[in-house]
Amino acid sequence: MQVPLIDTWQKVMAKKLSVELKVDVESYNFGVSGYGTDQEWLTLREKVWQFMPDMIILAFSPNDVGDTYKNKLVRINNGQLDIISTKEKTGGNWLGNVVRETYNYHLIAKAFSRNRISKILFDKFRIKILGFPKEERFFLSDAQLVQGPFEVIASQKNPPDEVLEGWELVKALVSDMKKQADSHQAKFLITINIPRAQVFPDDWKFLQQRYNLDLTTSAPYEINVMMGKISNDLNILFYDPRLDAIEWTNNYGILHYPKDAHFNKNGNLFMGTKVARYILERKLISKRN
What we know:
Layout: H1 9-21, H2 37-46, E1 55-60, H3 64-71, E2 74-77, E3 80-83, H4 86-90, H5 94-100, H6 103-112, H7 116-128, H8 149-155, H9 161-183, E4 187-192, H10 201-211, H11 222-233, E5 237-239, H12 242-252, H13 265-281
Parallel strand pairs: 1-4, 4-5
Antiparallel strand pairs: 2-3
Protein name: SGNH hydrolase-type esterase domain-containing protein
């Protein structure tokens, strides 16, 4: 579920900044191309700078670590970020790589996808003969619709190697985003899209029970701790709204829709108000004389 565009926290923030600074402030969400810090990084690099923004805000979410690992969009190579080619990501053995380049292969794939039995047979051929990976129907970004395993991934104090690799990649990505911002004389700020489990103890208890989490090795705010450390190491501005979110919830009510993890109107009002206040208190955008 989503609120109308005018009620999103980015628009709320812009309106409050406009009033306080007595200057027109516009905000745009460039995250619509997909999820994961890698896709945000690529969108920033390829599309955003033509609009000459004064500030870039990265709103980090619990599932971004998993998304970034799953996407296989970029990798760290000798300290540099490399974009992984589509061919490399799709895999395949030598025969698969040859067949994939033919027009007939795509015609056959389309024909076999018309009914369930033929699709199953074609998928077995793709996997066993051509060496392509199994096509999964579930994507990590689907976790935005429910509270589940990706809050768990982000909550681990000693996570699996795959998650650590995801965090290392996230660190490299935000480091490069900061360099891009500096080169364009723009401010760069990271904040957190607060998940429900950080403001409702019962939600965290539900995740603990469902995934058998050990309280000594997991916490609902571990994502905040990790991102705070990364931001500090890289000298990046970081606003952690968790404590403010708890206070706001106690005073003004719930921040999220009951059936999914998206901010409701009150949650967007909270984020827009608090991020604007952070910007104003640090004079990150100047008033008009």
